[in-house]
Amino acid sequence: MKLKSIVRIAVLALPLMFSSCGIFKKSKEVKPIIEQRQTTDFVSQVRDNQQTNKFITSKVKFSVEVGPQKITLTGNLKMRRDDVIRLQLMAFGFVEAGRLEFTKDYVLIMDRINKQYLKAPYRQVDFLRNSGLNFSAIQALFWNELFKPNQGSEAVVLAKNNKEGEGKFTTIESGDDMIINLEEGKMDYSWLASKNTALIRMANILYKDRFNGNTQLNWDYSEYDVFGRKMFPKKHLITLTTPDKEVKLGMTLNYLGNDTEWDARTEVSNKYREVTVDEILRRFMAL
């Protein structure tokens, strides 16, 4: 496959993985937990597993699948808590083909090969705004954490007297796991966590649209390793399903570290042409 074709698939597919939203198929063994205190205690255990490191960096092996098209790339992941998440896609192992950067204020998508970029605040990207995926929520997905929509992982603090209802976490027991659920309007957020370790094994977000069809995002975590005195997943499998397409992204993290010597912001050269969100979406739907 030509380099431009690789970039076209990967650079368009990656940012849209974080746009929408998944739901569990609950087994017949599911039993509701009545005591809200049990929900509070378990959610607190899950939250206690959060990373204490401020930086996470890693070499990454990417696999991107859009319909019948499959590609494999290498790259880098660089994250600084509460500041930036950066994914760099490398072609042939040494040429940076694309870059995806999330900050608190904007999303930046760069196509290095075709000299194009998109830089937009979250409120201008409909699918991010509608699904409650601002920077804090996206950070929680990358860092394997619970979050509250439009807030983030720091908002996951439950009082002992919280009552169930909209905007509150609930739990359901399912075999060896617990399903943590949060509903807000058209959105349904769910996490699957081990009862024994309280480690999150899956995050699911569902955007319900009875007119245009549902959109869902499944984010699976596996192959945990000790990092910064906490467990962190080295393998991430992300599946975005829209009424028209399914996109799969696999990320395998190698050589986890906490490198601090890198610039936290990408400067865009005046040689790059700015494109719109609509243009990116049109090109993606044409894949």
TrEMBL record:
<dbReference type="InterPro" id="IPR025634">
    <property type="entry name" value="DUF4292"/>
</dbReference>
<dbReference type="Pfam" id="PF14125">
    <property type="entry name" value="DUF4292"/>
</dbReference>
<protein>
    <recommendedName>
        <fullName>Lipoprotein</fullName>
    </recommendedName>
</protein>
